[in-house]
Amino acid sequence: MDSELKEEIPVHEEFILCGGAETQVLKCGPWTDLFCDQSVKRPKLLIFIIPGNPGFSAFYVPFAKALYSLTNRRFPVWIISHAGHALAPKDKKILKTSEDSNAQEIKDIYGLNGQIEHKLAFLRTHVPKDMKLVLIGHSIGSYFTLQMLKRVPDLPVIRAFLLCPTIERMSESPNGRIATPLLCWFRYVLYATGYLLFKPCPEKMKSFLIRRGLQLMNLENEFSPLNLLEPFCLANAAYLGGQEMMEVVKRDDEAIKKHLCKLTFYYSTIDRWCPKEYYEDIKKDFPEGDIRLCEKNIPHAFIIHFNQEMADMIADSLKDDLSKM
């Protein structure tokens, strides 16, 4: 896709209070308020992206832009951060809705269960009930997506894409065998190291380090992901990761069976979080499902260099559904 075309796509950044936690929402397209925005015609559908862990939504902007363009700019594409994975800059206002102000804070919002409730709380307070949804979950975001469908079966979801889905046996995966002792047994060592290294670090130094890192990886990012080096956010990512290793064990076949007609699973052949064996098992158990194995060597972290390829796959899969909208 032409780089100039990408730049023309508007992306609006908001920080909101959701379930008691600061949350970054990046909104691709001209729609910023689906309830009150009178400046443009309200769309009939929202494409909603739920990141992996860490849930830094800024890294998903190129993917969202590609998807927005491929769907002919007809529908908003929104990305939500995980609770506790984003802090608003000091000069940025945190928006509140009357519904969220009156809502109870979500218990253990930075943990696995709390993050699921966090996404449901956002949809309740920021998206009209009659608006159709396409959910896109990446990595642990796939687990959240599946559990959201299970907890609120009447959610108006027409399709859900589970990309590199970590929905089972996480601690048994090649990466999980390395991550489990770090996140579960040495978590507090990680916390202390993060605070000692980054808490005294000036914002300008953090910004320089992140810019330099993005340059070395040949990545562009219009929203500076300063939270990458924020000890509070790193600690919450590690806390969530520890719960993932302990609790994401058995595949929820009941939820998959109930919502199979809406689901598209997309596995990578080079994924050390959900290896090919996991694809073969679920394909055998649900032969009628839309369960795909990538043939393009797209890695688990597709948002680094394979945004266009993943957006192409999703847009192509949505053609029939979106033509009816």
TrEMBL record:
State the Gene3D superfamilies in the record. alpha/beta hydrolase (3.40.50.1820)
Family in the record: Belongs to the AB hydrolase superfamily. LDAH family.
Query: This protein is called what?
Result: Lipid droplet-associated hydrolase
Concerning SUPFAM superfamilies, the annotation shows: alpha/beta-Hydrolases
- What is the protein's species of origin? Sapajus apella
The EC designation for this entry is 3.1.1.13
> What's a BP term from Gene Ontology annotated to this protein?
intracellular triglyceride homeostasis
Q: Could you confirm whether the keyword Hydrolase appears in this record? A: yes
A matching Pfam family: LIDHydrolase
Can you list the GO cellular component terms from the UniProt entry? endoplasmic reticulum; lipid droplet
Hydrolase: present as a keyword of the record?
yes
List the catalytic activities from the record: a cholesterol ester + H2O = cholesterol + a fatty acid + H(+)
List the keywords (alphabetical): Endoplasmic reticulum, Hydrolase, Lipid droplet
GO MF annotation: an example: sterol ester esterase activity
Task: From the Swiss-Prot or TrEMBL record, state where the protein is found.
Answer: Endoplasmic reticulum; Lipid droplet
